[in-house]
Amino acid sequence: MNLVGIGDNVVDLYEDQNTFYPGGNALNVTVISKRNGAERNGYIGIIGNDLEAAHVLDVLQQEQVDTTRIRQMYGPNGKAYVALDENGDRVFKGTNRDSRVQSKVTLRFTEDDLNYIGEFDVIHTSINSYIEHELQRLSFKPISFDFSTKSKWSKVYLDMVCPYIQFAFFSGSGMSDEEIGSLIKYVHTLGVKIVIVTQGAKPAICSDGRNKYLQSPISAEVVDTMGAGDSFIAGFITSYFVTQDITTALKSASISAGNTCETYGAFGYGKKV
Hints:
- The chain has a single domain (2-272), classed as Ribokinase (UDP-N-acetylmuramoyl-L-alanine:D-glutamate ligase, 3-Layer(aba) Sandwich).
- The strands form 3 sheets. The chain has an 8-stranded mixed sheet, sandwiched between helices. A 5-stranded mixed sheet has the order 8-7-2-3-15. A two-stranded parallel sheet has the order 5-6.
- It is built from 8 helices and 15 strands.
- Helix content is 32%, strand content 25%.
């Protein structure tokens, strides 16, 4: 199978390490899908021209991800500031949202872009990619979409996005079982084929509209949970498009997430500031 990731990329600056790592949901899923066995992967996004952006580009090339459709702008790349809390867990302290190049322009696709996208089996994007205005044009291909946490989306947003996608991923942190059940049922009514809600250390819940599946996390030597959810998505989508089997894909997703937890950053490549 092959996958094209479209949308967000950042670097995550770990202040305790004085080190930044490439990240962002769409970019993470693209790279980790390749590591999970995808034959060909591409990434389309907006990137700056600073040291951080150069590192992201270099990493993508090392991971053999096609970067020919990236839009490069003059200015700073997206950056998230990450620290440790009193329990040793990583927390986001803020971003350079107002100054980054990604805040100044949006992705709009040409016919050449659409022809390129058509070469892939599946598109992955996210709520942080700001391409809702293009989803209808992209819906000639299966779309995987990450909605992140409950604080990010609303019913209005679901109504806008879900009719164009086939795979919906949510982080269920802080949601009750009843809330998750209602969410899954509603998203299916909007036409989504497969809905998955991850719950951190609790089992992930997957529904195909007929059956519900649970997948527990695998045992791992946890170093850093950054990107574990993105890795779960990458593992699931890559396996599902090969096997067409939900149970197998969920197991692959759990293994992928566990592997990510055993390294710093979403997939490594730390660079000192």
